[in-house]
Amino acid sequence: MSSFLAEFSQSLSFPLDHFQKDACRHIESGEGVLLCAPTGAGKTIVGEFAVALALSQGTKCFYTTPIKALSNQKFHDFQEHYGPETVGLLTGDVTVNPDADIVVMTTEVLRNMIYSQSLRLDRLSHVVMDEIHYLADRSRGPVWEEIILNLPADISIIGLSATVSNSEEFGRWLSEVRGDTAVIVTEHRPVPLNQWMMVGSTLYPLFDPSYDTKPPLNPKLLTAIERREQRSQRRAIIGRPQAIDSLQKRSMLPAIFFIFSRSGCGAALHQCLRSHLTLTTQEEAEEIGRLVDTGVADIPIEDLEVLDFPRWRAALTRGCAAHHAGMLPAFRHIVEELFSRGLLKVVFATETLALGINMPARTVVLERLIKFNGEAHVDLTPGEYTQLTGRAGRRGIDQVGHAVVHWAPTLDPEAVAGLASTRTYPLNSTFTPGYNMTVNLLSTRSYEDSISLIEQSFAQFQAHGSIVGDARSITRLEEQLSGLEHQLDQELEQRRPALGPEDDAANLLVEYMKIRRDLTEAEKDHRRRGVMEREKEVRAVLARLGYGEVIAMPGKKRPVMAVVVKPAQRPQDPRPMVITETGWCGRIKVAEFANPPVAVGQMKLPRGMAQPGRKNTRYVMDNFRRHSYGRPKKLRQRARIKPSSKIIDLRQQLRDHPVHQWPANDREYLARTAARVVETRTEISRRKRRISGATDTLARTFEQITALLTELGYLTIQDGQPVVTEEGQRLAQLHHPADLLIAQCLRSGIWDNLDPAELAGIAALCTFENRQDLSSDTEVPTEALATAMNATESLWSELINSEQRHHLDMTRLLEPGFSTAIHQWTAGAPLDYCLAAAHASGAELSPGDFVRWCRQVVDLLRQIENTSTYEPLQLHARQAIQAIQRGVVTLDP
């Protein structure tokens, strides 16, 4: 052991494990390190060694994390150890001592520093990338690869990761692009983990305890489940208070219950409150009360009322809490502080708690093994199960940790055993070039060098690896094809008397089946295109309907007449309000029509007909009774889609083909094998095309982005090379999912005349993503904001059309649900008023959501302030930031 490593080891209160010593030796020798280890194994000690080594050498170390909460935690840890003057923090919205020798930051901040060639990179010798497996995250993962590819080669990267199954592959890539990188993998958990299943209120070991290695399922558990299934299933799962009582009797508290919904966490907490469950002593409750009151001292009293503070405080003093992203950040911090001090005994949490924050427990409880991923309810992966249960077992406190799964009638114990036995999951790159990345690369590199850098990405490395898999599959498929062709020849020989004297029957049959397959695909594609065209037509019709316009809508027996009482406000998702001849009043949507309505006339309407009320409905119904308005005799609910010329031609080829004249029974018997021949040949061709295209997919995307940016004036071609223009330099400073749209808006000046509150509203339009659309459509507060939003949506429509032409992913849909709320907050409205405004606009926001989106709007406003060349807009962005940063928004843990 080197003298410095020995000195570092002596400063710790516990001995280093072998894998930690091994990693530290590689770091001290100047190598990069990829360390993969289970949660709680002690990975961060290796990162802390890199920090200490850099300080001892008189150089700097950056410690990067994927989330601000983890950055804050490491910042405070380093401050306590090294002193405030040595440690800095950069999280985008918080800047503390940025020139320090140790700086904790989010990965996006480091990426931006690299592209801007910041002087703060001077003397940088080490970068610790905590939770480096975030590289697989679809939305933020590419940032990790940008950093790895762009950092100077003399800077050592120390990657700390959960255990992944392809760590060697990832390590080989790191060595290829960064130089020597040691890959260190350990499955060792300092605190062993026991796996349990709770059936009713009884805990059973998941595996048979009489086996030492590869144990089967516990037979006593299976017997208990069998008995339970024979009884009534009403009480299959006991209530949370009873489950907590069972854990308490076994000394298995404190515990984290992972519940995969915010509302579920709140419901669990209220269930405990109603049961009068108390897990704290009088002294603990008083200490909790003091810490809570100190933590909320800066929150206005009126906001505390909105936040249901008294009930939340009561739950904490009784030892229970919830923890999820919808909570106020200050509230989450209080929960984390109380739990780390051992004052809370139970926390009901969503999976966000598993992302690096230091909150271990003695026991982790999973009530379900299914979660909603934003699109659908899906099973937990082995990696997610490992990450969640990794919280169980506190090093230096617990001899063993416990993972408990609630049994339910739909739960298969074998599935749980599979999750518990699998410790790794694959790390797959999500890297792809973007607009901001493209202009930043071309600002410092030639086009060829930029392509070369992109081709060094882990995504490209994995694409080359997939070629090997495809080549193996082709060999297997060709063997399978040979067998099918032999089988087809035998079947043809058996049926030959009925088929006639065809010399090349096998090839003819395969040719015939290929025509049938092509026809089926063409018909599917044509129907799909027809639906898309019809949807486009319906959208256009609904978007241009004006006040008082009478329409005939497709009906089952005859067309239904209606009049527009409130035109659509969003061309991209038009939802005009109508009153029908039968008195129904409501919004009509594109999805409700498989055939567009027809405008047939105009009805004279007084003002205010969109207001609900029997008077307005009766007025419209009487009007329809008195006038016919040219009702069409018939209007199909679903339009007929005429076959294309390609379909007509394929149908004719099918009828004219010799095989079509074969006896139907014989032909269809042979068709099954022939169809498999066609499918196998098609799959072989598809994989061969993928091999030929795998090596240039990212380069082709970069080329398409370059073409679009040149077309829009962000790049220009000089001497055959793309050169970043002045507009492109401004785009390079915009780090946002809608970066190009925002650049287009700033360039066109459509935001120039907005006041600070209106500018905040337009920034929210580009930033907000709605978790739960309540399908509301409320008026925006001012005419200027409405005009700017319409102009922004028009630019968005133009941009996505350009992206489609260049075969690029489209800039995401604009969401207006938060614009009114942030406008009102910026104008000085209270929290409850703004939450109500968001709800009325179709966005159901918790206080924590509100704060998070406010901060993201502030981040974009800062970029607008720094990027815009129009001084009044810069001023209004600055004023909007100052106005937003008040009350709950400014409270940082």
Automatic annotation (TrEMBL):
The keyword RNA-binding does not apply. GO terms for biological process: nuclear-transcribed mRNA catabolic process, 3'-5' exonucleolytic nonsense-mediated decay. It comes from the Bacteria. It holds the Pfam family DSHCT. Keywords: ATP-binding, Helicase, Hydrolase, Nucleotide-binding. GO terms for molecular function: ATP binding; helicase activity; nucleic acid binding. One of its GO terms (cellular component) is Ski complex. PANTHER family: ATP-DEPENDENT RNA AND DNA HELICASE (PTHR12131), ATP-DEPENDENT RNA HELICASE SUPV3L1, MITOCHONDRIAL-RELATED (PTHR12131:SF1). This is DEAD/DEAH box helicase. It comes from Corynebacterium poyangense.
